[in-house]
Amino acid sequence: xxxxxxxxxxxxxxxxxxxxxxxxxxxxxxxxxxxxxxxxxxxxxxxxxxxxxxxxxxxxxxxxxxxxxxxxxxxxxxxxxxxxxxxxxxxxxxxxxxxxxxxxxxxxxxxxxxxxxxxxxxxxxxxxxxxxxxxxxxxxxxxxxxxxxxxxxxxxxxxxxxxxxxxxxxxxxxxxxxxxxxxxxxxxxxxxxxxxxxxxxxxxxxxxxxxxxxxxxxxxxxxxxxxxxxxxxxxxxxxxxxxxxxxxxxxxxxxxxxxxxxxxxxxxxxxxxxxxxxxxxxxxxxxxxxxxxxxxxxxxxxxxxxxxxxxxxxxxxxxxxxxxxxxxxxxxxxxxxxxxxxxxxxxxxxxxxxxxxxxxxxxxxxxxxxxxxxxxxxxxxxxxxxxxxxxxxxxxxxxxxxxxxxxxxxxxxxxxxxxxxxxxxxxxxxxxxxxxxxxxxxxxxxxxxxxxxxxxxxxxxxxxxxxxxxxxxxxxxxxxxxxxxxxxxxxxxxxxxxxxxxxxxxxxxxxxxxxxxxxxxxxxxxxxxxxxxxxxxxxxxxxxxxxxxxxxxxxxxxxxxxxxxxxxxxxxxxxxxxxxxxxxxxxxxxxxxxxxxxxxxxxxxxxxxxxxxxxxxxxxxxxxxxxxxxxxxxxxxxxxxxxxxxxxxxxx
Amino acid sequence: xxxxxxxxxxxxxxxxxxxxxxxxxxxxxxxxxxxxxxxxxxxxxxxxxxxxxxxxxxxxxxxxxxxxxxxxxxxxxxxxxxxxxxxxxxxxxxxxxxxxxxxxxxxxxxxxxxxxxxxxxxxxxxxxxxxxxxxxxxxxxxxxxxxxxxxxxxxxxxxxxxxxxxxxxxxxxxxxxxxxxxxxxxxxxxxxxxxxxxxxxxxxxxxxxxxxxxxxxxxxxxxxxxxxxxxxxxxxxxxxxxxxxxxxxxxxxxxxxxxxxxxxxxxxxxxxxxxxxxxxxxxxxxxxxxxxxxxxxxxxxxxxxxxxxxxxxxxxxxxxxxxxxxxxxxxxxxxxxxxxxxxxxxxxxxxxxxxxxxxxxxxxxxxxxxxxxxxxxxxxxxxxxxxxxxxxxxxxxxxxxxxxxxxxxxxxxxxxxxxxxxxxxxxxxxxxxxxxxxxxxxxxxxxxxxxxxxxxxxxxxxxxxxxxxxxxxxxxxxxxxxxxxxxxxxxxxxxxxxxxxxxxxxxxxxxxxxxxxxxxxxxxxxxxxxxxxxxxxx
Lengths: 652, 538
Known about the structure:
By secondary structure, chain A is mostly helical. Helices cover 69% and strands 3% of the residues of chain A. The radius of gyration of chain A is 29 Å and the shape is globular. Chain A starts with 18 loop residues before the first strand and ends in a 5-residue tail after the last helix. Chain B has a domain of 219 residues. Helix content of chain B is 69%, strand content 3%. In chain B, helix 3 runs antiparallel to helix 4, helix 14 crosses helix 17 and helix 15 runs antiparallel to helix 16. The longest helix of chain B is centred in the last third of the chain and has 32 residues. Chains A and B meet through strand 2, helix 5, helix 6, helix 7 and helix 23 of A and helix 6, helix 7, helix 13, helix 15 and helix 16 of B.
């Protein structure tokens, strides 16, 4: 069934062409198939797989990682670094041709390595973390399903394949958030995530419809080649719809509310899905669609604004939260805001956003798993007000978490410095006054990030112990959990520098994201921005250290307007409830009433009229006429009468 | 093999089976079930042979056969199948054996019914209207139930295979009889009311159609042959009236908003198996009829009324989905989801593009599989609990994990998740509609959000959350799916996944028939508005 496309001839500039996958790369479908089959085995075999199922799950992702590395090196040696593999005709109706096909190019390759690499470490960690959960096999089934869907999302060669993976990721996320489905809060959080995602999905779907209606195709190469011929308004609408999809999946404004609630799932889920991979899908979508977004400056301005606004929202709310996972969740919202800022700026900043995404994948997974390790040793306590002084009791968790903390706030030479600071600099390189606006927002965000992450770190690991009575001796986690932590910590330290070294990742991504256009001149010099960003980081971190080094109250204290608002997610949940939920419930209730009384009554009345008086109908309905025969006979008589009438020529 | 009279044999075979089953002694109910099941498998086998014999890309109508019936009026037993009818016939052949297997104990004596414990005074809830009274009169007979299912299969096959307008009308009306008895004699609470309502609605629609059939015969040169009639040129004014006569019958049957109110009652009262056939197949006669009769025979009227039909479709999508969210009875909820799905099918038909039309027909098949599965699995849940009220469940996933998993899968198929077959059809309908009517397509796309809402909320209230303590007191809820039930759901799940990844074998059969229908109404797909890519490759 695998048919390999013929090599495309050389095309003039401006067109996008992909070569056919040959040799080893012809088996790139295995990347999706292996975790998918593993998921099916785990979910279908049931209890029979309980004893070894988790190792199958780990092995499947490990195998995918090894394969991904192999493909990566294969791709490096190719001239045309974009190869596609058409597996079968997915949909072929009229002029609509959708390929069930994969595209392996530099962008897809780095995502594959992130998903399978970080994913493998998180799988390994989860073997121990979920060891005492009766549903561990099911958990790994869902985990593998997620990896398969995410890989399909980044490997598809057209927008329908992307949508396929996109919704698959949404499903896996729902299953994992509501994994402990007997908890009403978990079930509700899963449903909320799926629904908010579907709002974005609807946008993405309509975007796909526009592509077909205007360009007659959904294949990446044909869409990107044809985008130049679209009118500006079409590009704008198309881009806004794609952006809506991206905000849903990535937890960006206005669809950010589901992400913090998603922390109801087991902690490895938060690490894999809500930090390292799934939430980056929106960034992937925009980076992948860079020919569309680069074609309209208004569109780019909207993306930049969403990014800047969300990164500040995330910081402000993150600073007010006391639940360790929710602080990290809002920090994820905020960091992805930086990535949106990057892809919105366009040009060379596309690559910067991807680099930040990869770096973030390491340090955020590191910190989420670290949080899990803390919870593991503290009877599943999540309130940072009830931690403190843990550095003495969990040395490995403390040290690894510290690398993540220093990385995210951007202390050189850890990875966040190399990935976040260039985005701030790029924001200052805009040509008009908006450079000050977005650059300032990014800079302010860096300071706030330093503040709330330091607050989290200090309250958890330093200062006096404020534990609940039931905890005597917090313990370090077992090796199977600390080894992934150590490896991720190494990534948090080194990844940024390695990726930035010699413009390695940026030039690797050039075939997809285009050449960087010359040397840009910002409103501030680059060295000035570097100094400023380190300065605000140190100020933010120092302030938090000063405020929280002696611990804090064990319960939330009355606070001013801003902090209260931040604790309530800036009232976005209240807004959703008042504007969508309550009226929605009222509407459905009203309609149920209306349908039973109004529409049914009206049609009943009509039917009664036709049937010859409501009295007769009532008798039929109340069962006096038990036999259907009268009705049939009436019908038959009518038929005969009608025919006689026709025969007699009354109607002719 | 292509000379074999597939369609007439397929139509008659279940009827013969029904006769055999009903003649079996009432004292041996198991034998009746086995014979009925075996017979339906034979019909399935014959249908598979027919599917294989079908020449994709061959004539529009194949397997044509004709025998005189009432020569004076030009009435013939004419059978022929196009791609649309073929896929529907396959759907029937697949669903009926599974429904028979799923209904194995539905007609048994009430002694074994799991409602007994629920009727204990300890249950402090009142007997709400939605409580499914599975207890039935002692008069009902097991062989008759299964014979009725086979009679129903006969009439369903006949209505799709008929190529004579009068024959179609006869099957259209006769089809009501077995379903009436299935609901009225074997249904749950309010079955009499529901059965009569179903019957009256359909009968009223049928009478309008009868008038139109006669009118068509008069203006069409005194013939009932579809192919002859499709060549006749009818004045637009006459077309309009004839169109409306047919359309009203089909809109009630389908059902489209605002003619839908009989379905929740019928679907709620019917036994789960009959409900699966009612919504999965029987209602498709409405949408099939529009495609086969309203469009090709009255093309001008169809084009004139298309905006109204699109409006009804899109209202139905949103309206019924909102109502589904608000339901507190499982079977009524599934019925409302189906009304929303019929809205999608209606939109797909009246968008008049190849993608939307093919999507609509594929939707008819996929919806039959997905909602069929949903009705059957909901039926399994209700049979265990002895109640269809959603509030009587809660946390059931702890007790019956496999059943809960299948329910969830059926829900996913119902909300058209990629990877399940309904995604393909919904996508085709929407993308095809978008090329000609953006507002309708955009509003319809919002339906996918509502679909997620009603499915997930239903799943949450039944299988997730805190375990309802009342559930543990019910014996039935301690038994997960047994082998028979697994055999019922497995083929549907496999088909839904296979067609979700590789729908081509079915779309290739449907597509030529839809394109022929588009030619009948003289419509072609709009070219891409920019189309550089297309032109470059041409």
